[in-house]
Amino acid sequence: MRRAAIIAGVASVCVLVAAGWLAWPRSAQDGPAPQMAAEIAEGRQLYAEFCASCHGANLEGQPDWQSPGPDGRLPAPPHDETGHSWHHGDALLIDYVFS
């Protein structure tokens, strides 16, 4: 009985791992979906026009972005996993940029 329970447990884990692997999003590996090409191009153009002057052409942010400037405001952070803007809501970011 114990052996059957162990085999069932191992089989269940294998099924869960396989299901997770099959469900894992492939978009990051395969590149953007073709139907998104226009939106991606528009986003690049909007970023270049409205964001790159502060956040950098390559999303790098401003130097020493974690230390407030003389006016007390933080410099523009990078737009990658090292920056922090990704976890703020849109309303807060819009208010911060336009205030």
Task: Describe what you observe in this structure.
This protein is an all-alpha fold. The protein has a domain of 43 residues. It has five helices and no strands. The mean pLDDT is 81.
SSE order = HHHHH
Total DSSP helices: 5
DSSP helix fraction: 40-55%
Q: Which stretches of 5+ consecutive residues score pLDDT under 50?
A: none
Q: Supply the helix-strand structural class.
A: mainly alpha
Shape: elongated
Largest sheet: none
List the helices and strands and how they pair.
Blueprint: H1 2-23, H2 27-30, H3 37-50, H4 52-55, H5 90-98
Feature tags:
5 helices, mainly alpha, 99 residues
Summary?
The protein has 99 residues and is mainly α. It has helices at 2-23, 27-30, 37-50, 52-55, 90-98.
